[in-house]
Write a structure and sequence with these properties.
The chain has helices at residues 4-16, 24-33, 38-44, 49-57, 66-80, 190-199, 223-228, 251-258, 309-322, 330-341, 382-387, 410-414, 426-431, 489-497, 518-534, 543-556, 558-576, 603-628, 683-691; strands at residues 166-169, 174-176, 182-184, 218-221, 262-263, 271-279, 282-290, 345-349, 356-360, 400-402, 417-423, 436-437, 441-445, 455-460, 484-488, 506-510, 513-514, 634-636, 639-644, 675-682. By secondary structure, the chain is of the alpha+beta class. The protein has 19 helices and 20 strands.
């Protein structure tokens, strides 16, 4: 006879088992008796209609935490709607009306047995990622559902994409989406994954412009998911990882082709696009990103690849909502955002036939690539090589300047600190209301300078005398020009602003112009400001409170801090990719490279942004010298280093008697173009670096040497 201990052990084992559900047919009967549709039940359980269908026809079973919630709902319905001819069985231990409700699984907050007037209520956001028994250990608490301090207004949900723009798929088939949703993905091959994504997942995002295209759904694969689909956990090779891809004879690549799907020219790499020809207006395309193949660069997405799937979905989801669904690196996404906001074409009715045809969308860059003027190109460009051009090139780059130690005064050497000020997204601020060329360049000789016409001008600015304690505004290294050189319109206009006559010898100008980057600037600015506000850095803070908030903002919420870093990388990478250089050791000068075939290969627009940003920086430096008598020690890109009597910018920035910042100089604040504290070091250390010929700005946290030209 069994002992009492054995009996209790058996009972505990039964209690530990997963809850048993009624047969699939009974599940469907109970739902129909309650008058609830499959779609409505799927919404309440944060799942898909197809998943509910699978539960009711026996093709699949729910997993925790939905399993417990679904069982509880079915038990409530079973008590209300017993099988005809049987008696309803009351719950074993009904709770008194006044007693507290029993604990409910985190992802389901509906009542066990709805009242006649009650409806199934969608679950609220959970505060932690759900744990699943199939894992060897419970997941650590997730921050992906933590409510932000301030949320941007959520766009209206598109009924075509009820589950958001993307999902992070783990090895057990759980696909983590935005707002805490978890979908069950039954796919076991890449082809099945693509078809599930397009037909059942409810993933995607609406277009950003009425003439644009919807964003294709993004599936991010964890290392476990990649291995499950037959992909290597790591993509190894002797070349740079970003250029690696699976060989054409890999089984997964063959599987994709056998399923009548195609890969883009990038092949099956860290960011793989799998597509078929569109059917009418419906696109058939899915973007994959493989985390263990370094799809999320640590520089642009700090710490994200190591997060839990739910947290990764939160980071990418916020970025997708505020910027764009990622299509590759942040540089690629920055460029894609330009096109998404300024589509190259729009539909137009043909007056003769009455049919709708595709026509040029005014303000866009059109559909055809455009060759630059020779001085705007790079030395290896066919325009240069084929023409034998030797007339020089634009050199509009960000500042890399350090003041000579010989120009330091005794008073400056006695100051104990060097304080770094970094301009918030300076290149984004430069893109605001920036007029650029939209048509091909025309060549002119002995033309009168016009600051309203974008283009490239050959002019001699070497005769302009400026204070040597400031960098020259005309060269990236801050040195004085030595003769005629090519400059972008903003650089020449600034020389005129300083009071000098300019007489261009030659120019390449564009007749059609427009503020092409305006919507791009507006969307990224809002993304940056809104994300900073979520981290506690708001516009209403005074300067002292602003500095304190900036000191702590990365610790407030690492997920949102990663979004902020990605937004900044999108700005610099997007601008840099306007002049993407050829890649690969087999390239030969004069050959066309793939980037030249897109309309967004526009080095003249990149030059315009950088020129305006550098001029803006010099204007502030010049105004600071006039107002305070202070001169910088070094300038690196958008970071400037000043000698200071104290460790804070409040010790040297100019303020009026009212306490308000003086206009024209550097001002603190979260808005693009305003400054923040970027580093504090002892003055003696900075002087030591300069004596050794080093740039102290490189050693001040946050300085960026050049605009990334993308991947």
């Amino acid at each position: 006879m069994a002992s009492e201990e054995e009996l209790f052990a058996n009972i505990e084992a039964l209690l530990a088992e997963e809850p048993q559900l009624p047969p699939p047919a009974e599940r469907a009967r109970l739902r129909e008796a309650a008058g609830i549709t499959q779609a409505r039940l799927a919404q309440a359980l944060k799942s898909t209609t197809q998943t509910v269908k699978n539960w009711e026809n026996g093709r699949s079973e729910p997993k925790p935490p939905r399993l417990e919630a679904y069982k509880r709902l079915l038990e409530g319905w079973a008590a209300k709607y017993p099988v005809p001819g049987t008696l309803a069985v009351a719950p074993a231990a009904p709770a008194p009306a006044a007693a507290p409700q029993p604990e409910v699984p985190e992802t389901f907050t509906g009542p066990a047995a709805p009242e006649p007037q009650a409806e199934i209520v969608a679950p609220v956001q959970a505060s932690a990622a759900p744990e699943r028994p199939v894992r060897p250990a419970a997941r650590p608490a997730s921050t992906s559902r933590r409510p932000a301090a301030k949320k941007a207004a959520a766009p209206a949900t598109d009924p075509r994409f009820p589950h958001g723009p993307l999902a992070v798929l783990d090895g057990d088939g759980s696909a983590y989406g935005v707002d805490g949703i978890v979908l069950d993905c039954p796919a076991t091959t890449v082809v099945e994954l693509v078809e599930w994504t397009l037909r059942e997942s409810g993933l995607g995002a609406p277009k950003l412009n009425r003439y644009g295209k919807d964003s294709d759904p993004l599936i991010v694969l964890t290392a476990a998911a990649a291995v499950k689909f037959g992909l290597p956990e790591r993509l190894e090779g002797h070349e740079q990882r970003r250029s690696l891809r699976l060989p054409e004879d890999h089984p997964v690549v063959k599987q994709v082709a056998k399923g009548k799907w195609q890969l883009t020219q990038r092949g099956f790499g860290p960011w793989a696009r799998i597509y078929r020809k569109a059917q009418g207006r419906d696109r058939q395309c899915v973007q994959l990103a493989i985390l263990s193949w370094d799809a999320l660069d640590e520089r642009a997405w700090p710490g994200v690849a190591e997060m839990e799937p739910a947290d990764i979905a939160r980071v990418l989801g916020v970025y997708a909502q505020r910027v764009i669904t990622p299509r590759g690196s942040t540089a690629v996404s920055g460029l894609e955002l330009m096109t998404a906001l300024r589509p190259p074409t729009k539909p137009e009715r043909d007056e003769e036939t009455g049919n709708w045809v595709s026509s040029y969308n005014p303000g866009s860059l059109g559909t055809e690539p455009m060759d630059p003027a020779p001085p705007e190109a790079t030395p290896e460009h066919p325009v240069v090589v084929d023409s034998g051009w030797t007339g020089g090139f634009l050199n509009e780059e960000a500042y890399q300047w350090v003041r000579s130690v010989d120009l330091l005064s005794d008073e400056e050497c006695m100051l104990p600190f060097a304080v770094g000020l970094d301009l918030n997204t300076a290149f984004l601020a430069a893109a605001a209301r920036l007029v650029v060329g939209l048509s091909a360049p025309d060549h002119f000789h002995n033309v009168k300078f016009n600051p309203k016409i974008p283009g490239s001008w050959l002019v001699d600015l070497s005769g302009i005398e400026l204070d040597p304690r400031l960098p020259s505004p005309f060269t990236p290294d801050g040195s004085r020009p030595t003769g005629p050189a090519w400059y972008q319109t903003h650089t020449v206009a600034y020389a005129q602003e300083l009071g000098y006559d300019v007489h261009p010898v030659e120019a390449y100008l564009r007749r059609e112009t427009g503020a092409y980057l305006d919507p791009w600037h507006d969307r990224l600015k809002n993304a940056y400001v809104d994300t900073l506000a979520d981290l506690g850095v708001t516009k209403d803070l005074d300067d002292r409170a602003f500095l304190a908030a900036m000191e702590q903002h990365k610790q407030v919420d690492p997920a949102l801090a990663a979004v902020l870093a990605a937004v900044k990388a999108t700005v610099k990478g997007g601008v840099g990719k306007l002049r993407e250089r050829p890649q690969g050791k087999h390239y030969k000068d004069g050959e066309r490279w793939p980037a030249l075939e897109r309309p967004t290969w526009r080095p003249d627009i990149r030059a315009a942004v950088i020129s305006k940003a550098r001029v803006n920086m010099h204007r502030k430096l010049n105004n600071m010298a006039k107002m305070t008598g202070l001169f910088p020690l070094a300038v690196l890109s958008d970071c400037v280093v000043y000698p200071s009597p104290g460790s804070s910018p409040l010790d040297f920035l100019p303020y009026a008697a009212s306490g308000k910042p003086q206009p024209g100089g550097f001002r603190l604040g979260p808005t693009p173009g305003l400054a923040k504290l970027e580093g504090v070091q002892e003055m003696a250390w900075a002087v030591d670096l300069m004596e050794k010929g080093l740039n102290p700005a490189r050693h001040i946290k946050g300085g960026d040497a050049v605009l990334d030209e993308g991947e």
